[in-house]
Fold each of these.
Amino acid sequence: MRATSKTRMTDPAQMRALCLYHFGDPGDVLRLEDVPILVPGPNQVRIRVHACALNPADRAICAGFFGGAAPRGTGLDVSGIVDAVGRGGLQRGGWRQGIRPTRLHHRPQRHSAGAVEHAVLMAWARVPEGLGLLEASVLPMAVETGVRSLDLLGLTSGQTIVINGGGSMMGFAALQIALMRGAWVIATAGETFAGALPDLGAKVTPYGGGMVQRVREIAGGPVDLALHAALADGVLPDLIDMVGGDPRRVMSISDFDEGRLGVRTTGREPNLAPRYDALAEYADLAAQGRFTLPIARIFALEAWREALDLAFSNRACGKVVLLPEEADSAS
Ligand SMILES: NC(=O)c1ccc[n+]([C@@H]2O[C@H](COP(=O)([O-])OP(=O)(O)OC[C@H]3O[C@@H](n4cnc5c(N)ncnc54)[C@H](OP(=O)(O)O)[C@@H]3O)[C@@H](O)[C@H]2O)c1
């Protein structure tokens, strides 16, 4: 019988963790292992992880794109129950957290990323009543990126913005944030959420050939701003066209070809402070049913290969989530 989180003999000082010892393709370098549970340091908390939502950034981490040293873990968006608090951290006691660590740890905290049973965190927000831990786990990266991108663009009420990739989870979040700020939103999207996005308040048109003309027809001319929120190369000229030719009105979170085209990117802006402060507000909105991100599939930690394949496919059609507490069958 294969050991699962429910059946295996466990050492209380050990946990299962998705680890890598050198950088490369996630399928080649990641391993699911038993490793020591870490003690949180000053101003850190540790949670028993309920859910870890995956992001394309996890592949970049495995590839060494963000630097740092191996061994380390992966998994940036987590939720769970606090089970230890470092000096200067929170008061202990049953807090439920929807949290994103500010960075992945390396030695001595080398196994504490999110795809683990116990994660040490440096940034967090409380999960409000009314929001499940599963739903909380998918929020941090999308909320932080959406708020940061739209703030950097300077979006104000009454402006019209194109979100290219309203069906990507970053786009799905950003368009809701833009709508709540009083903007008019036109989203390009595939079939997955073409029906759902208008219900949120966006005008929707397919991405791909002819989208400049389609967006202009919907907007009645050039739009004020554009956010490129999908993994798709070669569309920045179209977005520059949509805003009437000024590349500084275009922000890209994925295609960083700004040197040649002059568009703005989240990677090169002078004010790059992470916007973890926004998480509590959007968690509250999610608890009230006013902000949402769809979940495509849920996997046990043992099924991490299948989960990562889907999360990195650029066709996930929603968030992909690992549940470290679950046994080894994927749902
Ligand atoms: N700079 C940052 O801080 C930052 C932070 C987070 C993410 N990112 C980047 O943002 C990108 C999106 O991340 P994500 O987590 O939102 O990805 P995701 O949810 O996995 O995006 C996949 C979805 O994108 C849509 N899509 C695929 N090709 C498209 C195209 N050509 N045009 C428009 N939409 C297309 C598809 O939806 P349909 O069903 O609509 O086809 C697909 O389901 C990634 O490149 C990621 O690395 C950057």
Amino acid sequence: MAKRQKLTLQQKRRVAKSQRKKSEQPLEFPDDLGPIENGIVISRFGEQADIADNNRQVLRAYLRQNLGSCVAGDRVSFRRGSDIAVIESISERSSELNRPTRHSGIKTIVANIDQIMIVVAPYPEYSAIILDRYLVACELAKVTPHIIFNKMDLVSAEQEAFFAQQINLYRTIGYQVFPISCQTQTGISELTEQFLGQESILVGQSGVGKSSLINTLLPDADMAVGEVSENSRLGTHTTTASRLFFLPQNGHIIDSPGVREFGLSHIDADTVINGFRDLLPYSGQCKFRNCRHINETGCAVLAAAEEALIDPQRLTSFHSILRSIDNA
Ligand SMILES: Nc1nc2c(ncn2[C@@H]2O[C@H](COP(=O)(O)OP(=O)(O)O)[C@@H](O)[C@H]2O)c(=O)[nH]1
Ligand SMILES: [Mg+2]
Ligand SMILES: [Zn+2]
């Protein structure tokens, strides 16, 4: 009885130590850590991440608590342990992509991106509105977007004129457009140039061929193609973590299976126009300063559309995005 109530000093120390460990650190941290080194986050999963050191050697690491968000592309300082490393700090980001969470918060998806490659394809069904939503999100995140039309081998004779018109439209607006096929290798060498030395991310609907493109550009990556992702009707969550792949020389590409859409519902309706390069120049000439460019008299954007200075498809997308924000 007495023995049960009273713990020895040694036992008390042990209990205190284990409680301290539980509250401060969720996992056993190695205590044989080496000096501080610089690295980059390859992929994040829960309390751990894969990071690469300066020699592109990949190692598993724990995250210290209170580090804050840590995502693919983050530059970190870490210390090497005998079987696992520990991330000590995260460097300030030059850019980041965010998406709203279900509880009206914001989650960062990737960090330090130079360019965003939006991948579209004739199958799954091409949607200009989805493409425009990505473009607006990129423009508002202040990261340059480029557009990849993949699976051009699947374009049928009757679809040919339509896709040629779409490609021309986005080029006229000022975007770089790359019509390619991972299947036939069409356009791959021009696209490869665009990736050189850059820190890029691939975004786009599931099934458009993002993983296939990484395999085409980097055969050693050995990406799983055609895997069921988060928007499958079965609700299977296969891979939702973004993952970074190094290019042979400088630069890297991040694949983002979980990024279906990012960055729109937490933005202000007034700022949507800033995401439309082709509409924006007219918006300063509207009669009313607070013009929403929906049905106002003296709206210069609507007038420009009437004179065919703006493509009607783009105006439709603009209005659709405004409505989706109002309903959010
Ligand atoms: N015909 C054709 N099919 C492709 C092409 N690129 C990818 N696919 C196929 O499209 C499907 C989805 O590709 P995947 O890379 O997994 O798409 P992800 O979900 O965007 O990563 C797979 O069955 C690929 O084989 C292409 O250029 N042409
Ligand atoms: Mg994929
Ligand atoms: Zn207006």
